[in-house]
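quick one before i forget lol
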Amino acid sequence: MKVKSSNKKVIIGAAALVLVCVALLLVYKNFMPKGTEGAKTITVKVVHGDSSEKDFEYKTDEAYLGAVIQDNKLVEGEEGEYGLFMTSVDGEKADESKQQWWCLTKGGEQVNTSADQTPIEDGDTFELTLTEGY
């Protein structure tokens, strides 16, 4: 009798956890940052491992940064569980053995979304910096 009761509690707990996860996903989808539609110009500054910098200006109708930088072949990457993981920018590949990765910032502040989930507006400037150390 006690085994059935504990199994029932586990099933109810698991179902409740699934419902909470679905609810959080729906809230995120409804309130996540949205890009603006229409023509805009953005700048992407690439800071290479040797500290050299190169600016790229794009005119686009896209709403999110990832589409712009992938369509223009500025970045290569892999789709991960959190979105686009940039492995190479402007021809420079991050070296995992050195714990290198490409950091996305906007106005010097780190962006907490992947590039494909980062909304853009006219006049925005983003930085992609090769960073070492996790």
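fyi The two ends are 51 Å apart (CA to CA).
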